[in-house]
TrEMBL record:
SUPFAM superfamilies: Cysteine proteinases (SSF54001). The lineage of its organism: Eukaryota, Viridiplantae, Chlorophyta, core chlorophytes, Chlorophyceae. One of its GO terms (biological process) is proteolysis. This is Peptidase C1A papain C-terminal domain-containing protein. It comes from Tetradesmus obliquus. It comes from the Eukaryota.
Length: 115
């Protein structure tokens, strides 16, 4: 289980991805329905409320601007070719009390021939 920003960043650098819980808020879908927001960083608005649980894959990050680059399961026509930016510390991503973020490690069953 991964519960810190640093550990998630380290895992992404070493292995490529972290799967995390994502609490969808009432303004999430409308935020990305506006195509001008495709590359904007999502932060739930002050009046947004929790709607449902979801899972996302964290595939990158920007420490200076404090956001995760996440892959959604809504397909490549959603967001920025299926990706979106979400601020650190929101939507229960890596929430220690929720315990729902895990690193992905893929090991091939056989090594390809190097010829």
């Amino acid at each position: 289980m991964i519960t810190s920003v640093w550990k998630a960043q380290q895992h992404i650098r070493q292995y490529g991805a972290v799967v995390s819980r994502f609490d969808v808020h009432s303004d999430f879908e409308s935020f990305f329905a506006d195509r001008r927001n495709a590359q904007a960083v999502y932060r739930p608005g002050a009046s947004a409320y929790f709607q449902y649980y979801h899972a996302i894959t964290l595939v990158g990050y920007d420490s200076e601007q404090q956001y995760w680059l996440a892959k959604n399961s809504y397909g490549s026509t959603w967001g920025d070719t299926g990706l979106f930016k979400v601020a650190y510390g929101v939507c229960a991503i890596l929430a220690a009390d929720k315990g729902e973020a895990y690193g992905i490690v893929w090991t091939p069953s056989s090594v390809p021939d190097a010829r």
